[in-house]
Specification:
The chain is an alpha/beta fold and about 230 residues long. It has helices at about 40-50, 75-90, 100-110, 130-140, 150-160, 185-190, 215-230; strands at about 1-10, 10-20, 25-30, 55, 95-100, 115-120, 140-145, 150, 170-175, 200-205. α2 (about 75-90) packs across α3 (about 100-110). The two termini are about 25 Å apart.
């Protein structure tokens, strides 16, 4: 396991690679208010133990990367992911996105060519963040999480994107909790209907936006099987 500082958009992204030298590589995209630690660290260790390399990183404005949280946009996150993939230059790779990280992985397909994409609790549809958009329109910037403010630049940038506008040609795997209050299961089912590719969908009964330990283990088992079936 080793750390890297990667240039992106005039700033720097902090990344950690697990299982150096063992391709294929899986790039882990964290959610909107999280970072590369916690669950992604555990998932990266899991991948390395199972013969894959994994790269977890902080989008600019998060964790050990440069920038302010309020400055980040979907465009800046896509740029960061592309910069990280290009830096490591894997011969074969996959993407994993959690929550808003799923949206980043999806829209990065305009520039990247992974072997497959896996997403968890995926905030794919445009309306997922509408409540936050309305709050900004009414009162300006607000504190989304302690020390993390959300403002108009994020939503101005989101206006440039529309789910369904990307031609997805790679296998796409999704995990969704049926009791997720942030990304309702109906939204993920709707998103799947717009994916014109090979889709593997797992609904996790009773699970919320964050999965229980048992559901996480179940997801990992299906995920590693998906990776082995679709990557050489």
């Amino acid at each position: 396991m080793d750390s890297h500082r990667i240039g992106s958009g005039g700033g720097a992204v902090e990344a950690v690679r697990h299982g150096e030298g063992s391709d294929p590589c899986v790039f882990l995209c964290h959610g909107f208010g999280s970072d590369k630690e916690g669950g992604h660290r555990e998932r990266a260790d899991f991948l390395a133990r199972n013969g894959f390399s994994a790269v977890r990183f902080d989008f600019r404005g998060n964790g050990g990367s440069t920038g302010e949280f309020v400055e980040q946009t979907l465009s800046s996150r896509v740029e960061d992911l592309v910069s990280v993939v290009n830096y490591f230059e894997p011969e074969e790779y996959a993407l994993f996105g959690a929550s808003f990280g799923a949206k980043v992985a999806y829209f990065s397909l305009k520039e990247l060519q992974p072997g497959l994409v896996t997403v968890k609790s995926p905030a794919l549809l445009d309306r997922v963040m509408n409540a936050h958009r309305v709050r900004v329109e009414r009162g300006g910037d607000f504190e989304f999480l302690p020390g993390k403010r959300v403002g108009e630049p994020l939503f101005e940038d989101l206006n440039r994107y529309s789910f369904g506008s990307v031609d997805v040609s790679v296998p796409f795997q999704l995990f969704q909790g049926t009791s997720d209050s942030y990304v309702p299961v109906q939204q993920t089912r709707e998103a799947i209907s717009s994916l014109d590719t090979r889709v593997e969908y797992h609904e996790m009964p009773g699970e919320g936006h964050s999965f229980s330990d048992a559901a996480e283990q179940s997801m990992r088992a299906a995920w590693i099987d998906f990776l082995r079936r679709h990557l050489t």
